[in-house]
Amino acid sequence: MISFAENIEPWQECLVEASDKACQDAVQWLSMLRPRGNTCLLHALEKAFAYPDVQGVYLLTDGKPDISYNLLLAEHHLKSQNIKVHTVSFNASEKSGNEFLKMLSNLSGGRYHSPYGDVDGHLVAHRMLTEGFTDEDDPVLPLFEGDDLRRLAKEIDKARQFVTQARSFQFGILEKQMSASRDVSVEGNDVSDTRNGITPGKIT
């Protein structure tokens, strides 16, 4: 882990195995960080790329970098050595910065994450878990920005379509069964009337 503001500050000078002890130390280190000054993103990426055996980088930020987006993308292309950069935005209002994070993740083959949508995603998830849904459009899913949440939303939409189709098939089968049951009932009444000497449509 590397913090970046006016300067960069690595948690460790090498990659560390994710043991319980290491995770506890990392959380404690993170709790001491405070936002301040600029966002020296390029130096942080260079430091991350310099670690031996690094395979991917998760970049978490809520602000603009302190140099141009184009320069950052060019430097990343030259120095990343095919390392995937997964970006996470914590500032939904920073449109230009978020577009840059999307480009950076796409350029490296990584994924872009953003927890924000146009409506409260937590409320929608709660409604679906507690109330279910009656059709394909209720409740309406947020317009997620992050790659993973957008993929999840597409899968949910597919599932809702399948459920709607299944309900339609079930209704059709029930209709056929009820129709067949009515036909059998009418035929049974005709047979009973014939045995009793009653001809349908005639009075004897």
From TrEMBL:
What name does UniProt use for this protein? VWFA domain-containing protein
Output the InterPro entries linked to this UniProt entry: VWF_A, vWFA_dom_sf
> What species is given as this protein's source?
Eleutherodactylus coqui (Puerto Rican coqui)
Q: Name one Pfam family in it.
A: VWA_3
Locate the region Disordered: 185-204
SUPFAM superfamilies from the UniProt entry: vWA-like
Record-linked PANTHER family: VON WILLEBRAND FACTOR A DOMAIN-CONTAINING PROTEIN 3A
Instruction: Give the source's domain of life in one word.
Output: Eukaryota
Q: Where are the transmembrane segments?
A: none
Residues annotated as domain VWFA:
3-113
